[in-house]
Amino acid sequence: MSLLSIDQLRVRHRGVTVVDGVSFSIEAGESLALVGESGSGKSQTALAMLGLLPATATIEGSVRLRGEELLGAPRATLDGVRGRRIAMVFQDPMSSLNPCLTIGLQMAEVLEQHRGMRRADALREAQAMLDAVRINEPRRRLGQYPHELSGGMRQRVLIATALLARPELLIADEPTTALDATVQAEVLALLDELRQALGLSLLLITHDLGVVSGHCERMLVMYAGRLVEAGPTRAVLAAPRHPYSAALLASRPSLHGPKPHRLPAIAGQPPDPSRRPPGCAFAPRCAAVQPSCRVQVPILQTDGLRAWACPVVAAGNQGETGVEDRNGA
Amino acid sequence: MLSRAATRLLTAVPTLFVLVGLSFFLMHAAPGGPFDSERSLAPEVEARLNAQFHLDEPAWRQFGRYLGGLLHGDLGPSLQYEGRSVAGLIGDGAPVSAALGAVALLLALTGGVALGAIAALRRDSALDRGLMLLALLGLSLPSYVVAPLLILVFALALDWLPAGGWDGPASVLLPAVALALPQLAAIARLTRGALGEVLAAPWIRAARAKGLPERLIVFRHALRPALLPVLSWLGPAAAGLMTGSVVVEQVFGIPGIGRYFVQGALNRDYTLVLGVVLFYGALVVTFNFLVDLAYGLLDPRTRPT
Amino acid sequence: MKAGAFGQPAVAVPAMVLLLIVLLAAIGPWLAPQPFDAIDFDADWAAAPSLAHPFGTDDLGRDLFARVCVGGRLSLAVGLVSTLVSLAIGVLWGAVAGWFGGRIDALLMRLVDVLYALPFMFFVILLMVLFGRHWLLIFVAIGAVSWLDMARIVRGQTLALRRQPFIDAAIVSGLGSTAILVRHVLPNLGGVVIVCATLTIPQAILVESFLSFLGLGIQEPATSWGALVNDGARAIDATPWGLIFPAGFLATTLLAFNRLGDALRAALDVPGR
Fold first, then answer.
1. Is the ipTM of this complex over 0.90?
2. For chain B (length 305 residues), average pLDDT per consecutive 10?
3. What is the domain-level CATH number for residue C177?
4. At what angle do helices B270-298 and B223-252 cross, to 10 degrees?
5. Do A234 and A289 touch, CB atoms closer than 8 A?
6. In the structure, do chain A and chain B come into contact, i.e. share 3 or more CB pairs under 8 Å?
7. Where are the domains of chain B?
8. Closest approach of C210 to chain B, Cα-based (Å)
């Protein structure tokens, strides 16, 4: 049984669909990337999984943690899952910590809640975890407030907090976007190391393909609320089968190969979720678009290892997406 | 922390000086003397009275004399209450006014925060809209309207509570409610707005993702930052309570400072009116100063690292 | 300023209520059976509301409907005139502080801070005590103590305006500070000033009625809602209508102004304090 399986997840805000029938699963110990532009629905998917969306959102489908349904579960059940079995680290380390409470309290409360520990014991363990994420002077940090730490340090604190209760799955939503490049690399290396040491699964949400290639075994690509491609990271990056993945890959700076005159951007804008075109949502921007694409929503086809939602590209002729040719990548 | 206190103190002292100077010279710019209203004072009697109260001296000498007295806590003699000093009159009324004000402040704070929090937690529900309309009504109903209405209902119609006087805990209730209501309404609106803002903050979602129960989310994570604006409101609230107490003491016949003030104002008792204005001004300045210090303690971001 | 703000019910409803109250205050006295200060010797003193006297009469036999309308004229006039006074001082003060910045700003706003810390109602009373209770003084005194909010808000808005490109353009084209202030800054303060003024009017009405309630404001035979509430409160056990009608009008007016201010703030997208 998969650790977590998501089936036909659909999220709507006031009638606007932002996640549209997303299905995937995460295996124990696996690292999975969820890739897409901002507004593609990747964060909404993660928040929906944990029941963290506002009450005004409508959520359909199924999210099962080792077979146990989480969607619509009572708050008490969710509180036993959140932070304890599935932990989450958010994008902005500045605002994800409460400015009025000490680091120590914000860490200790996780252990008090999930392990029934007393404050003093919880603080001792928090200190050990700060040490594990290589924060210097961990003891002093416990008494400090978030504004007294640097951005990178705060993100380490958030990671340490997420790992305190030894969760089975860590969801990291753009964990390095708000950080400097050098700090980014350190935080990602730390995540890798901790994942291997603790044997936890990782769902890494990012728009950065560079982050994906080094740190995740499998990747999912989302566009306009739908899953458009899924497969082993190496295979997808080597030969993307959906024109959107290909375009995303082509618009990324590369250290290898000839230096392009200027980086190609994907022409056009992602569709407004409230005015999604009929058929394939990527059709208006797609170089390989066919008349049928504008009418029918492509189904996710699979060859057992990979999956892609584009009828134009058949399993045999990957690479003929047109986009790569045009960009000469 | 200390430097913050020092800068605040540097504002407080000139504020007090402006207060004293402005009031005193306004008083001397005014036409007519305190004994004008006494209909038939013989000229020599009036001259003697003026001399007795140094009203015949030039204004700056009187101001100097007044300032010197202030430093010794001497606010001068009352012009109307014979043989009484202004400081003595204020001293008589202060415990009563302070008790009334403290009860009202407690009511306004607990009630306002509780109702505001309920409205914020049930945002956009019928309960929220109802509470906020009530709060706006509370802001629009001045104490001198609420006070007689309370008397009409709870003292005259229902006969549950005394209609006035200052005699035991039961007599505190109605005036304290009348005094607290506008401040309670203001604090409820303030709390709702602030708590609503905090509840939408990313760190609240992060706290939910940690699996904390709603009780901890609200009381530990949301309420504390949400109460900061309420704390800074306490300064204006104190001023509002002092102002309101003038009316409420009048309506309920409570022997506090406010009653002396109104009597003094109606009788043109210069020294008494000025003394009360100074006393309340000094209180408000002190209160603001303390609130500022407390703010620094409660909000770690304002503390130097 | 968005057109159509008045089309929204949150704005339109309190605006209509206020219009009705203003109309009643304006024409009511002509509809009343007798002038507001005349005594009806046929009716009982302190008569309950009836067809002849819809709001009843007071303990001198004067028609309360006429008195509430006439008192309303005064209360509303105080609200408007005092707000205009506070508008004049506050806008000028705030615009100058925000526009010139630096030391001028620091000095002007520090003074506002100092005045803010004072219990201003006591100052108005002090003014009343010292200079007598003339109605003109009441208008000016209330306006003179209620411009602080306006000054703060206008300063903030002016600071924000100063960073706008069209102001740079005006500076580059060689316009002097005063000209820019008058021609470009003041007209652009519209929304903020409207909201702030809407919320200042009930404050001014409140202060006046407070004074009149204490007997320190409007003097007989003139009257205002505050003075009527005072009369009503004194005779509350015998003639409760004497309290309920003026208090009801006063509270409805204040509520409507506060609602209107809140709704305009939302409709014109003006940030709160």
1. no
2. 66 76 72 55 70 69 78 75 80 86 92 91 86 84 82 78 75 86 90 88 91 90 87 83 86 85 80 82 82 78 56
3. 1.10.3720.10
4. 160
5. no
6. yes
7. 86-302
8. 8
